Structures are given as C-alpha cells and as structure tokens.
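Quarterly update from the structural biology core.
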Amino acid sequence: MTNEEIENCWRGKWFAKEHLTAMIDEELNQKFGGLIKNENLKQSCSKFIITKRSRFSFSNRRKSHDRKMTNHNWPIWARMACIIVFDQVPRNVYRGDKRAYETDSIALNFALGFLRSGEINTLPFHFRATILIAMCHSETLQVQQELGEYISSHHFSAYETSYSLVSKALKDIQKNHEERIKQFERFPERNHILGRQSTQKEQAYLKELY
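Predicted structure, tokenized:
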C-alpha cells in the first residue's frame, strides 16, 4: 500500500461516531493492521526520530536551525503516512487497549517536525488537520499549548469558513484537552486502559463524565 493510499483512506474516516465506529475499526484493521504490527517499520521511524531528536526541542523551537529538520530524505507523503499509521490507526485497531497509545511518540515527533519547521503552512487543510489531531492526543502541556497557539493563528483561522466543522471540532478538542492536562497532567479516561491508578480528583471527574 502506498503512502498516498494510506492518507486518502484516512481522509474519509475523520471523527466517525456511533454505528460507523465498528465498521471503520474493522476496515482500518484489514488495511493497516500489518503496518502497525511491523516492528521493522517502527524501528526505522524510531531511529530517524532519535537521530533528529535535538531538533524537536521545545527550547529551540524558534531558532533558525529548526528549519533544517525537514531537509531530509523522507518525503511529505511518507511522514504523513507515519502519522496516520502510528497515531490514529492504533486507536481504531486497538480500541480500549493500551496498545492504542504505544506508538504515539513516533507520530507526535513527525507532527512536531511539520509544525515547528513551518512546513505545515505549505500543506492542504486535510494534511494540517491530521498533524494537529496527533498533537491533540499528547499528554504534554507544552504540546497542547503549542497546538493552541497554532490553532489561534491566521495560518489556521483562514480555514474556518471553508472547513468550518472540522476546524471548530479541532478548536474545541484542543481547548478541552489543554484544560484537562492543566488540571490532571494527563487524560484520566486513559487510566483504566493503561493500568494507571486514578487519584480521588480524577475519580470524581470520571464519575461525572460517565
């Protein structure tokens, strides 16, 4: 399966709910299940990230050398495919299982590469949304704040009319996620899946949520 086929398939699956969820989970498992279980692919992407790790530093994100992080042999389609395969697909294939989050860091680093280099601003909206969704999933406050800055910028607001539903959904999700990270330093609803002990404050929140 090509990188283009991965991205094109994913475009039609944004924010699927209710009766569509199980159907799409199964479809993504059939199409991409082999990729997310491919240890060679994971290692290849992880090696790239380790090699380039210093360029993803928050403290350096506005320095000029950040621009260099995209000057490598990984084409845009390949990096976008990695974000989809390692961020969203596991959430569908492994729904309710801790494996759904195991490769988040791989996808996040590719997403941050696009954002911090400014390369995201050269991409069409559906590419940008895929990148921003991966950042939405982070339990790191700095990532959520950086995402909030971008969503509030003219680079994103320019799409509020032409892609109103998706842009509004992303804004609402980011705001909600940042508030929860500020309050709990993590997403409490993941605790039972990841085997984390919930605090009393989190238990009260979850009781109200469900």
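The domain at 3-209 is CATH 1.25.40.10 (Serine Threonine Protein Phosphatase 5, Tetratricopeptide repeat).
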